[in-house]
Amino acid sequence: MTACPHPTKSRFTTRAAADISSRRVRLSTDIQLTPYECVCTWWHLTKNTVEVLLTADEADRADVEYVASLPDIDFREIVVADLRGQGARGERAVLRHELNLRRWRRQLGQLVADIDAQLHERKNDTSLEAHDWRKRAVNYSNTLALRLEECRRLRAVVHADAFRKKDHRRRDAEIAAAAGATVKELRQHAGEIAVGRLIDAHGSEFARYCAEEYLALGLTVPDRIERHIKDSSV
Ligand SMILES: [Zn+2]
User: Fold this and answer.
1) For 101-146, what is each residue's pLDDT tens digit?
2) 30 Cα to the center of ligand 1, angstroms
3) Which of 172, 195, 196, 201 is the residue whose CA sits 20 to 30 A from 154?
């Protein structure tokens, strides 16, 4: 765990707890405070605006695949730009897509190792310049830790989804086997029943659409359809 850069701030275990506190402050002082996650793994409140968390939904599918096909060196540039908060949201969101999560995680891990090595190398350097550098390096290292946590969380969601889908597939297969059919056959069966119910409930509407399509093709509307429309309009 990383040391808190703001140890005097109030800390909360969850975003929800921080939210409640923020509302309370708002009511009593009219000051708007926003919860944010800290590298110390607690939640704090800030008066500053907090960047809205990116999701893969903001990424274009073509961009996701393009970035997935990039060599490591180009991929890393996107990772570094994202650390600095640079680049369009759409570009940065690409990293949050499940196709890129594993590589994002690996690249972040390498960057952590790099900065740790540099911090270690200069740890006995007491010059002013080294002091300034160290301050920036620690900030950078903190951002890395936050991105790693974000990545870990996204991967957990992907894993849970995959597990749930696999579980559903297994259950469906069991039910189909018990019915002596395949899952595909059962789904078709459900579809047919649903179409039947739809026609029962909206028969005249269905007959009218049929008639329109016959006419659109230049065909004569069959009597049985005509009759259905007449019957239902009585
Ligand atoms: Zn903190």
Assistant:
1) 999 999 999 999 999 999 999 999 999 999 999 999 999 999 999 9
2) 24
3) 172
pLDDT-based confidence at residue 170 (cuts at 50, 70, 90) = very high
pLDDT at position 39 over 90: no
Nearest-CA neighbor of 175 among 162, 189, 161, 163? 189
How many Cβ atoms from other residues are within 10 Å of residue 19's Cβ?
16
| Residue 6 Cα to ligand 1 middle (Å) | 5
Give CA 15 to chain center in angstroms. Answer: 18
As a dihedral over the C-alpha atoms of residue 20, residue 24, residue 29, residue 32, rounded to 10 degrees, the angle is 20
Half-sphere exposure of 121 toward its Cβ, with a 13 Å CA cutoff? Answer: 8
Residue 110 Cα to ligand 1 midpoint, Å, equals: 24
Listed by start position, the domains of the chain span 1-50, 56-171, 183-233
Cα–Cα distance between 193 and 51 in angstroms, integer?
A: 49
